[in-house]
Amino acid sequence: MENSTKQLGTLETEGQAIAKELRSRDRKDANQFKRDIVNVSQFNGSDKNPQGLWVRLGFLMTQIEQNNSTKKDCGLLKIDRRRLAEAKWFYNNLKDCQAFIAESKKGYTSLTALQLAMSKANKATLSTEDKVSEATPSEATSNEVEESNVGQSQLPTTKYDLAKEIMKTCQDNNINPLDLIDIILINVENQPKQSKNVVPMGNHKVKNNSPKAKQANA
């Protein structure tokens, strides 16, 4: 029993010591990261603990991208390409990164962690915006729906259907159907009368094939 208790105590003590050391390193890394992301005008390599490491490295990468120098001439060939890419990303998005760090409740110890956190935040924002846009259709979409509904109702195909539509329209607009009938009759009476032997369209007369017409023509 003594050996078991002693073994548990040893593991717990070791775990607490390791956790303490990791917390200490995290604090050191966080403090170093703060120094590395300071926006300095020129990197001071002679300083024992220089500032702006990632900012100046990102600036160098943008200059190399513009063919103003090369990785070989800058001594960057043996530097991990991921670090070079992260530094360039940080430099190109410096203001956004600084604002994100300022608003964050926890500190960051590397550009990798910062880039991952910003990526997740952007995805969450886009997802929220998509849900809002789906719940609230835009004005253009609403107008398209309204326009697509125009002319969808079928026109009456028989005189009975037409009469029903006319009656409904009169009721909806407080119009006396009898007044409408009087207007229709007046318009019919005012229409010019056409000869039965004349085609409504054009100037050609219709031949009359009745027996009386044939005798008259003879």
Architecture overview:
- The protein has 218 residues and is mainly alpha-helical.
- The chain has 2 domains: 132 residues, no CATH class; 35 residues.
- It contains 9 helices and no strands.
- The termini are far apart.
- About 4% of the residues have low confidence.
Task: Detail the topology: elements first, then pairings.
Layout (H helix, E strand, L loop, with lengths): L1 H35 L16 H13 L15 H12 L1 H10 L7 H25 L3 H11 L9 H14 L4 H14 L20 H7 L1
Q: Strand percentage, roughly?
A: under 5%
- Unreliable spans are 198-206
Order of helices and strands: HHHHHHHHH
Class inferred from helices and paired strands: mainly alpha
Compute the gyration radius: what is it?
Answer: 44 Å
Question: What is the assembly state of the chains in this entry?
Answer: single chain
Number of helices in the DSSP assignment? 9
What is the total tally of β strands? Answer: 0
Q: Averaging pLDDT over every residue, what do you get?
A: 78
Fraction of residues in H or I helices: 55-70%
